[in-house]
Structure formats: structure tokens, C-alpha cells
Amino acid sequence: MSNNKFKLAVVQLRTELNLDKTMEKAEHMIKEAADNGANVVVLPEMFSCPYDKQYFKSFAALGHENTVKHMESWAGENGIILVGGSVPERDGERLYNTCFVFNEKGEQIARHRKIHLFDVDIPGMRFKESNNFEPGDEITVFDTEYGKMGCAVCFDLRFPELFRAMAVRGAEVIIVPAQFNMKTGPAHWEMTLKMRALDNEVFLAGASAARYEGFSYECWGHSAIVSPYGEVLSSCDEKEQIIYSDIDLNRVEEVRRQLPTFLKLRRDVYKVAE
Fold first, then answer.
1. Which residues pair with 6 in a beta bridge?
2. Which of 14, 26, 99, 267 could disulfide-pair with 86, CB 3.0 to 4.6 Å?
């Protein structure tokens, strides 16, 4: 029997060039969130590694295993579900942009490898994440004491089929660690969070890193938690901070009953993977 209510916290952390400094700061902010009553805590995309191609391989060479052990400890010691943003994960010669998820006992319960890699060529910005990472190929939905949740990473957010697939598989909360940039962030970030939440009538948490002024890749920040009705429940600016929202999963059923788009999917005409 799952609980219907919990407190969600998004840790908008600024990633430092020094891994130890970042990890120390992450540990402190996670503890602060837990002390403030958070049951589920979320970190940003690449929280342990500066988001720049010159750092991905060198930080991956340090090994993701030690970072995973830290996250296991943080989850277990604080008695929280920890959605560990993402880290550069090594698998033989391959690198993945990977989110690890841990339960209250510090046990790993999910791993999402970013499916859609950030390969873009827009005015003022060219970036090709596939030069460093391999794409994942699995949809990630996991069980918690609060029911099923889903996870995606950053550019995955732009693909509605993935979010529909998670919702069809039972996810009522979907969490998206991300680092939208200074071009796409102000244009699309909050809008897309709202759309994916409203598309599927689920809670959606967008967990951005805090902005590192003057760094080669400056992210937009503005983490937000959105309701199944598309309402922004909590949000912030670009600075380092923690945002919170009380989640009542009864709201999912309520919205779907009042505005039954998700309940009236024409699966005889169209469908996504179940």
C-alpha cells in the first residue's frame, strides 16, 4: 500500500571544478532538504561534473562508482529517496549520461541512461553530446513507497512519446534532472515542463543546476515543480538553492477525472510502449 502524500525537494546545486568540493556541498544540501522534511530529493544533471566536453572524459576517468557510493550513503543516512541527477557513467569504453536512483535504505532502485543526446546547432550555440556519450535505450519507471515514478534527463524532455510511455506504465511523478542553456532555457524550459505534466496529467519536477557565471556552459537554472494541471507549484531563479513542494498524489486522479484526456487515450488508434 503506497502513501499518497510526500514532500519533494529539488537541490539546485552549482557544480564546481573540484569534485570533492561539489560532493561536500551536495551532501550538505541534501541533509538540509531532509531536515526540512523532504522525502524525495532530486539533484541536477551532471551534478558532479562540469557540463563541458573538456571535463566529461576526465571526470568519468575518476570513476562513477565512488559517486554512487556517496549517493547510497546520502539516501540511507537521511532516510530519503534520492534521484541522483546524473553523472558520467563508464561502462567499458563507453560513457553514458546516467541518473542513479536510491531508496531510503540506500539501495539502488533505478538507473536511467539519457536516451536523447543533446546534439544541436542553433544560432549562437553548437553542441554535440554524442561526441562523448552513448544514448541509453530503456524507459525508466521505478517503484517507491509512494507509487511509481519515472525519470528522464534534460533533452529527453523534448520528446513527448517518452513521457507518455512512462505515464502509461504507471508513473504519476516524473523527475527530470537537466541543464537547459541560456538560449533554450528562457524560451522553452518552463513551457516544456508544463506541457509534459499536462500531456499526461502527472507531477513533474525539473531539476536544474544553478548557474555558474562565466563558465563555458551557463545553464538557465529556474528549477520548477509542476502539478498535473500544469500549475507551477514551486520555482526559483538561477542561484544555488533548494525548492520544495508538498505532493498529494490524489491530485493525479482528481485532474484525470475532471479533465479526462489521459483516461480517454484512443489506444485502438494510437499507442506507445507499455
1. 247
2. 99
**DSSP letters of 2-66?**
--SEEEEEEEEPPPPSSHHHHHHHHHHHHHHHHHTT-SEEEPPTTTTS-SSHHHHHHHHHT-HHH
Residue 74, pLDDT score: 98
Nearest CA among 113, 152, 125, 140 for reference residue 220: 125
Residues annotated catalytic, as ranges? 45, 114, 154
Give the pLDDT score at 84: 98
Half-sphere exposure of 174 (CA within 13 A, CB side): 35
Q: What is the 3-state secondary structure (H, E, C) of 126-156?
A: EEEHHHCCCCCCCCEEEEECCEEEEECCHHH
Residues of the chain with pLDDT under 70: 1-2
Lookup: cell for 97: 549520461
Q: Report the C-alpha gap between 11 and 263 in whole angstroms.
A: 33
Conformational region of residue 176, where left means phi above 0, alpha means psi within -120 to 50, and beta covers everything else: beta
In this structure, which amino acid lies at residue 270?
A: Y
Q: Which residue from 37, 13, 36 is spatially nearest to 26, judged by alpha carbons?
A: 13
